Amino acid sequence: LKTIAFVGNPNVGKTALINAIAGSDLDVGNWPGVTVEKKEITFKYENEDIHLIDLPGAYTLYPYTLEEKVTKNYLIKEKVNTIINVVNSTNLRRNLYLTLELIDMQKSMVLSLNMFDDFSKRGYEIDTEKLKNLLGVDVVPTIASRKLGVKDILKYAVKSNKIPKILGYQEHIEKEIEFLEKKLDIELNFSKRFFALKLLEEDEEILKLANDELKEFAKEAKERIETHTQTKFNTLLAHSRYEIIDSILKEVLKAPLVDKVLLTDKLDSVILNKYLGIPIFLFLMYLMFKFTFDGSAPFITWMSDFFGNFLAPHLKESLITLPNWLNSLLIDGVLSGVGLVLSFLPLLTFLYFFMALLEESGYMARVSFLLDKLAQSLGVKGNSFIALIMGFGCNVPAVYATRALTSQEEKEL
Amino acid sequence: MKIKLSSLKEGQKAIIQNIGEIGELKQRLLEVGLLCNEPIEVVKIAPFGDPILIRVGNNSFALRKEEADKIVVENLSARKTH
After folding, report:
1. Are B62 and A369 within 8 A, CB to CB?
2. Which residues, listed in sequence order, are joined to residue A50 by a DSSP beta bridge?
3. What confidence score (pLDDT) does residue B82 get?
4. What is the ipTM, given to two decimal places?
5. Shortest CA distance to A80 belongs to which of A61, A59, A106, A99?
6. C-alpha span between B34 and B56 (Å, rounded)
7. Of B17, B27, B53, B61, which to mutate for an interface test with A (greatest number of A Cβ within 10 Å)?
8. Pick from A160, A44, A41: which is nearest to A111 by CA?
């Protein structure tokens, strides 16, 4: 069995890519103990058992959100044969940060340049051959939504076993990594280099694996770096990574002379306007509820009519032979109960449709920005407002909406 | 001229000089590319003056006022007008 893990930033089309490969046969579940979705599939590919797993979106392996923690811990603890690193081609600078961290793990890897259509549309060009040589892994442009490059990425992930080249960081960091690597004698399913870096970053899970002597060495190493460079280790590492990213991009990326002014920028100046922003938000919310309730009202009436005035009397007649108590249980209990629940279905469908519309259009993210100040006074972040507003309409979608919040405490609040 | 990021106005450009103590968020800012010596631009300030939307390279980030208070920048727009 070969395990292939999909790793990438949030919203880079990772799930779309795995869907394009696996079709609708994905197993969707939850990661144990957390409300983070887990998607996986096992299938046969040219007589080999392949296990694909979609890891939650992460900007880095230095976890800040629950999703990142799940992803990092999976990569550390589980046996992963190959990593498919999915990046958003239109935002390489930020996406490659995670790529560099993955490279440090020294596992067989394939890079998927996703959203390649947007990338070309904006007038960018990239030398994939050169990028392939610099990183030492296969690079495949993909467009998940149109299933382009999907077969290639799977083929490369299964067949080739290319371990990425190490891209050296700042000299003091490299010196201490080497020092710690020599002190290490633990059986790992990833590189000693990654272990050493995580020791310096003081990652909880890694510290659990280290003995006291090793922790002491790491502490000394970190102090040496910080006194030599007069910079905090984490700052130095981030700077060093961005230096590498910028030097790579300088070689492979050709940006258009002028980045087109996007329509979204113009829209933003209206919906985020100092005076208009909040009225527009209230108006949109009003419209959403108006359409949800008005639009679903006829369906709800129809649904309850169907159950109450059509199905119930008919069934009652046909079940007349049954004893009275059973008849009553079926008609007044089961049927009207199910009917009541189902009559909410149109309402939920409408609400979900509008929610999805607002979310996909990116308006929700802007609402968080607009209302953050108000939300702060309630002790939550701006994005909680959506869940709160949903709560006025119905509790079920509100509970669903809390899934999008970042911290566990916030969700419970 | 060194000032707090939070005192920049919409449309002004600056260079980050120093990021103060803002807890866990500092690490996150480093990782998304908000580093010292990086040029930034204030794109938008939300109603009530908080949060602040800034652009670094091609990326935009929203910062709360309390966080922006702890980031020291060199104001480039002010220098031009002098």
Report:
1. yes
2. A2, A43
3. 45
4. 0.74
5. A106
6. 7
7. B27
8. A160
Summarised one tens digit per residue, pLDDT across range A228-285 is: 988 888 888 988 999 999 999 999 988 776 655 566 667 777 777 777 888 888 888 8
Asked if A169 and A244 count as a contact pair (C-beta separation under 8 A), the reply is yes
Q: Judge: B32–A268 Cβ closer than 8 Å, yes or no.
A: no
Tokens 């050169």 found at: A130
Residue A309: pLDDT band by 50, 70, 90 thresholds?
A: confident
Backbone angles phi, psi at A202, to 5 degrees: 60, 50
Among A119, A258, A272, the strongest candidate for a mutation testing the B interface, having the largest count of B CBs within 10 A, is A272
Partners of residue A140 on adjacent β-strands: A112
CB pairs under 8 A between A and B: 73
Beta partners for residue B39, in sequence order? B15
Average pLDDT over every residue of A116-145:
89
Inspect the interface and report whether the beta carbons of B51 and A275 lie closer than 8 Å: no
In single-letter form, the type of residue at position B15 comes to I
- Residue A202's region, left for phi above 0, alpha for psi from -120 to 50, else beta, is left
Rounded to the nearest 5°, which phi and psi values hold at A308? -75, -45
First to last CA, chain B: 11
Any CB–CB contact under 8 A between A229 and chain B?
no
| Chain Cα centroid distance, residue A125 | 26
Q: What single string gives the DSSP state of each residue in A127-196?
A: -HHHHHHHHTSEEEE-BGGGTBTHHHHHHHHHH--PPPPP----HHHHHHHHHHHHH-----SS-HHHHH
CB contact at 8 A, A390 and A401: yes
Q: Touching check for A370 and chain B: CB below 8 Å?
A: yes
Cis preceding-peptide flag for A346 (omega within 30 of 0): no
Mention every residue, 6+ apart, whose C-beta is less than 8 A from residue A234. A201, B26, B27, B30
Question: What is the spatial distance between Cα A248 and Cα B42, in angstroms, rounded to a whole number?
Answer: 28
List of chain A residues whose C-beta atoms are within 8 Å of the C-beta of residue B35: 235, 238-239, 242
Contacts with B, A 39-78, CB within 8 Å: 59-60, 62, 64
| pTM given for the model | 0.76
